[in-house]
Design a protein that fits this description.
This protein is α+β, with helices and mostly antiparallel strands. The protein has four helices and five strands. It has a five-stranded mixed beta sheet with strand order 1-2-3-4-5, with helices on both faces.
């Protein structure tokens, strides 16, 4: 089952987010102060769509998606910013289930994501779901704000 994240999910989200960021999936270091700021964005639901992924009554993972717009997408796009499944729940089809869930929303012209080249299981999943390489690289710069 996939459901929207609620205020009651804060502690479990923080715990899983720490695991996600300690797994080497990003160059960023996120501390609890940063998590608190982002938690406010999750609760506002303005541009962040956050989900809890459950399996047989247990919380198995989460996803954080951000809504933006792009000329390429001819409107809105959904950026899958984070998708984390607890190790004991991997290989149970939960990633595939999550993508089917967000594709049914039909609110977005594109769904985009980033991945680690070394994460062969994720790459295999994404390609099997029809994701294609954009053919260009992404850059980022942290601002002072």
């Amino acid at each position: 089952m996939i459901r929207e994240m609620t205020a009651d999910d804060k502690s479990v989200y923080f715990e899983m987010s720490k695991k996600f960021y300690s797994a080497g999936v990003t160059n960023s270091v996120i501390d609890d102060c940063g998590r608190e700021k982002f938690w406010k964005e999750i609760l506002s639901r303005e541009i962040v769509k956050a989900y809890i992924i459950e399996y047989e009554g247990s919380i198995a993972g989460y996803s954080v998606c951000c809504v933006s717009a792009s000329q390429e997408a001819c409107g809105r796009l959904l950026w899958v910013d984070e998708l984390y499944i607890e190790p004991e729940f991997r290989s149970k089809g939960l990633g595939r289930e999550f993508f089917k869930f967000i594709e049914t929303k039909k609110d977005y012209g594109y769904i985009r994501l980033e991945y680690e080249k070394e994460n062969e299981r994720a790459v295999k999943l994404y390609k099997s779901l029809g994701f294609k390489d954009c053919g260009y690289l992404s850059l980022y710069k942290k601002t002072e704000g």
